[in-house]
Structures are given as C-alpha cells and as structure tokens.
Amino acid sequence: MVTMAIAKQTLEDMLRRKVLLILLIVAVAMIALGPSVGFLSPRESSAVLRSLGLAVILIAGLLITILAGIQVIPTEIERRTIYTVLSKPVQRYEFVLGKFLGGLFTVFVMIAAMGIVFLGVLFYQEKHPAPEMIMGVVMTFFQMMLLGAMAIFFSTFATPVVNFFLSFGIFIVGNMSVVTESLTKNPNPGTRIVAMIVHVLLPNFGNFNIQNKLIHPEVQITNENVFIIQNIVYAIIYSAALLIGAIIVFDRREV
Amino acid sequence: MAAAIVTQGLTKTYLDVWNKAEIVAVDHLDLQVEEGEIFGFLGRNGAGKTTTIKMLLGLIFPSAGTGTVLGKPLGDIEAKSRVSYLPENPYFYESMSGWDVLDFYARLFRLREPERSQRVQKALEEVRLDPKAWKRPLRGYSKGMLQRIGVAQALINDPQLLFLDEPTSGLDPIAHAELRDIIANVGRQGKTVFLSSHQLPDVELVCSRVAIIHRGKLLATGKIGELTAGEKVEIRADGVRNGVIKQIEDLVGPVEHSDGRLRIPSVDEEKVSDLIDLVRSVKGRILAVVPHKRTLEEVFVDVVMKEGVA
Q1: Which domain range does residue B70 map to?
Q2: Helix, strand, or coil here: B179?
Q3: How far is Cα of residue B61 from the mean position of the Cα atoms in its chain?
Q4: Do B33 and B192 form a contact (C-beta atoms < 8 A)?
Q5: B116 touches A: beta carbon within 8 Å
Q6: Cβ contact B93–A9 (<8 Å)
Q7: Is residue B35 part of a domain?
C-alpha cells in the first residue's frame, strides 16, 4: 500500500513535468507527420514510417526515462519532501520501489501514448493493422525499464548531472554489445579482459532492438519468441538486481 | 510517567570538505523528555537542533551514543507510526491539493477508507484551514496556509509524539498566534511535543520544560519556572521610621523612601529575613515581597554568553 501510494504520487508529479510533456508532444507530432514523407514508393514509405516511428519512440523514451530516473529521488531530497515521507512508518525499500514504480508507470504511459499513435498512423498508411509492431514498442518499454532501474541505482549516490552522463553513456555502450562481444575475441589480452568485463557487467541494451526484423521482415531470427521472452526476463532480473543495489545503498544514506 | 525520548551520549560528527577535520554537530547529548509534556528545544542557528531531531527520527545516523523514542530504538518503524514531524520551512507537492497531500500522508500510515478521509477532514479542521482551500492546489496557498498543512500532516496519525522544527518561523503575527494556540491545544490533548524554536516568548508560553543547546552541547535543562526564577526579590514596606533607614541601607544598599514608605528594588534572597526583622523591629509593615523573574530570553542569552558566542 505504501509503495503504491508513493508510486501514484510520483506518477502524478511526473505527468505534470513540462519537459516530459513537451518531449511527448514532439514525439507524437513526429510520428503523426511520418506519412507526409511522400516522395518515396509505398513500400519504401512504409519501411521509413516503421523505422521512424520506432526510432522516435526509442529516443523520446530514452530521454523521458533518463530525465525521470535521475530526478525522482534527488528531487525529494532537494525539496526536503523526503523528511515528511521517511519520518512516517515507511521503510526505505518501500520508498525506493515506490519511486521506481512511479517512474516506470510514467514511462509506460508515455510509451503507450506514442505507441498507440504510431500504430494508428501505420494503419492509416498501410490500410491494415500491424500488430507485429506492438512487440517493437513492448521491447522498447522493457529496455527503458532496465535503463530506469539503472538511473534509480545511480541516483542513490550520484548527483543528477553525473547520473545523466553515466546512464546515457552506459546505454550507448550497452547498445554496442555486438562490438564489445567481438572485442572479447581480440588477440590483445588487455583488450580482451576489458571487453569481457564491459560485455558481461553492463546491461545488454542492444538485444532489445528488434527493429531490423520488424522493418525488414525478410531478416530471420531463429526462435523469435524465445529471444523476446529471454530479453524480457533478462530486463526484469537485471532491473531487480539494480534495485536491490539501490535499496542497499539508500538504506545507509543520510537524508 | 514514562520517557517519550531518551538520549545517551548522542553524538553526530561530520567531516569537512577535505575529509580531514571533524565537525561536531551534536556532542554527547543526554536528554530525557517525559510523556505528555511540551518540551522546548532551544539553540541558535547551527546549534544542532535539527540534527538532533533527524537522528531521533532515523533520517540520519548517530556517530556515537544511543537513544530511544517511545521506548523503541531510533528510526524504529513501529515508533514512527506513533510519531510525527513538521520540518522547518516544509515543502509539499505543490500541484496537489491540501486534501490530496494529507490523503497521501495518511496512506503512508496504512490508513484505509473511510477512516482515512475522516482523519484528513479532522486534521484540516483542527488546523482551521478554510474549507474552500481544501481542494485547491498548494501552489496557491500562502505561507501560513502551507504551515497549517504542515501541522495537519503531523496530526494525521493522531500521534503520541510530535517533533515541530521552527513551526512559527516566517509567519505573520496573526498566523503566528493561531499556530501557537494550535500547538498549545495539541499539548492539552496529552500528546508529547518536542518543539525546536527560536521564538522564546512562544516557548515560554506553551512549554513546561526546556533544554538549551549550543554548539551541539547541552548547556541547561529544566522547568521554565526554575530557570527563570531570579535570586533577588523586591520588597515594599510601610510605617518605617527614618531611624532605621540607615541600618537598612547598611544591609542592602541604597533604598527609596518617603513618608514612612519604603521600596527596595533588589534584595539578595539571603538578606530578606534580616530585612523583615529590621522593619518589624520599628513596627513597620511588609507590603510585598516580589521575587524577580527573568524572561526565558534573558536566561537563554545568559547561558549562551557564558559559554562564549562564536
């Protein structure tokens, strides 16, 4: 009950943040304007729209997640609202989980809004529903869940500015998992060890990008459902580990 | 009567920015606050008052020493359900209405409907917030209204013990007086109030006991009446013949007298008995013996100045 009360309050607070709303409006506008790219053939136009839509959802989702994730806990400390919350019978883990869930609900609402517009525009363009694209949006959401958990973890000990660059940087490196994986076979032992550490420790964000398959149906992934479920489970387990870390750090933190 | 708060050697130290020198915010604080009393916790800015309250609430952790709140260790969740806190210059979620903010805090106490709504309404009525403002966003509230919301959130769980940190700071005189009355009313309900304040006249009016803290050290503690009681008295007498005035002046120094009436503004307590004997020896009449009483402010300044002001 306490965790959900904090999550609800966080969601309501986040949905009133102008910067997040502006990001959402810009993203929705970009998706909605997709069909106006009219100089391409119908097949190319459809691929561009699918690519543009998922890319916009990813970029807007990324910015919304990082901005929400780096702010939810430090803002409470900065405004000193945390004093009136933690002086009540609230366990610190309930506070961390409530803040994470509030941020996650925010990201969910925003990605869902963009996703609905995207699917609507796609239907308008292609004259038939494209349910397979839902999976692309869902994967983006789970990717953002993992990123959000990471931002919450860093926010328990780092300043928002440091957290922004850390989360963003790790997201970029984590998206290059193909590169880091190839570096683990490098002949140089130093490079191999560093690449191994980076590849194993950092979240593998690259696996959530299933756009190629969705945009170019001719690309085949063996056992696609298993691949998707594996990644969702990976996101949940990794996020849980990050949240446990966040709770351990925050439990010892003075506010 | 059981103790609501006990601290033993409670200490909080911080390291400076270079992580070398130790800054002692609270220094071996031994304190006992009884249940049902309104206890004033006095000190200058930076004396360690807020740090002490934060340690008692488990928001920060002591570097040394121990303490209990309502018989439980510091930061205990069960104790927190019977405690409340109004921080100095509180900030609330300004996009929420007064009602919604209190509803949120009530949820943190795991209160369910319909009790939750009843508690919210009761708290808002208790702090006398205009019902027209209950459903308005806090961003439109005045400082006084926000402070009432602060007190209301501190009353939402019907606490046994309230920590109030500078509750009247920055309020206009009317809001100030009203809030002071609310605090006094809370005390009349038998709740324990730990009131940290600079407003010494308020403390003198509402508190039964005080502690004075300076540079983290406890300098004085006791009942207000005991701390403010002076060691001198004023004596007024009638029918005192001129013949005895010289003897009286030898005993207590210069006096005011005319037509047999005598006024001695300041007499040491140990000389009172001899003086009364002298007046009576000439068939004079003692009209009044008035003990000198200091204000709490005078006591505070005296205690702090003796320690040295920095």
Answers
A1: 1-82+159-215
A2: helix
A3: 24
A4: yes
A5: no
A6: yes
A7: yes
Nearest to A94 by CA among B168, B116, B80, B157: B80
Query: B186 and B115, same structural domain?
Result: no
Both B56 and B17 in a single domain?
yes
Residue B310 falls inside a structural domain: no
- On chain A, the residues whose CB falls within 8 A of the CB of B94 are none
> Is position B305 within any domain?
no
Same domain, B165 and B211: yes
Residues B111, B125 share a domain: yes
Q: How far is the alpha carbon of B107 from chain A, nearest alpha carbon, in Å?
A: 6
On whether both B4 and B69 belong to a single domain, the answer is yes
Residues 11-30 of A with CB under 8 A from B: 12-13, 16
Are B235 and B278 part of one and the same domain? yes
Hey, are the CB atoms on B109 and A89 less than 8 Å from each other? yes
ipTM of this complex prediction, to 2 decimal places: 0.86
The single-letter DSSP state of residue A74 is H
Q: Does A86 touch chain B (CB under 8 A)?
A: yes
pLDDT digits (tens, 9 = 90+) for B205-227: 999 999 999 999 999 999 998 89
Q: Is B302 contained in some domain?
A: no
Which of B176, B191, B215 is the last residue before a domain boundary? B215
Beta strands in chain B (DSSP E): 3-15, 22-34, 38-42, 64-69, 72-73, 83-86, 161-165, 192-197, 209-214, 217-223, 229-238, 256-258, 261-268, 285-293
Number of domains making up chain B: 3
The structure tokens listed for A171 are 């997201």
Q: Quick one: B17 and B70 in the same domain?
A: yes
- Helix/strand/coil (H/E/C) assignment for every residue in A138-188: HHHHHHHHHHHHHHHHHHCCCCHHHHHHHHHHHHHHHHCHHHHHHHCCCCC
A12-42 burial: b if 16+ Cβ within 10 Å, else e: bbbbebeebeebbeebbebbeebbeeeeeee
Mutate to test the interface with B, among A8, A72, A88, A99 (most CBs of B within 10 A): A88
* A39 close to A135: Cβ distance less than 8 angstroms: no
At B5-29, the pLDDT tens digits run: 999 999 999 988 787 778 999 999 9
The pLDDT value given to residue A219: 60
Give yes or no for residue A213 having a pLDDT over 90. Answer: no
Which CATH number characterizes residue B261's domain?
A: 3.30.70
What is the pTM (predicted TM-score) of this model? 0.86
B62 and B2 in a common domain: yes
Residue where a domain terminates, one of B132, B156, B180: B156
Question: Which pLDDT tens digit goes with each residue over B55-85?
Answer: 999 999 999 999 999 999 999 999 999 999 9
Using the Cβ of B59 and the Cβ atoms of chain A, whether some distance falls under 8 Å is answered with: yes
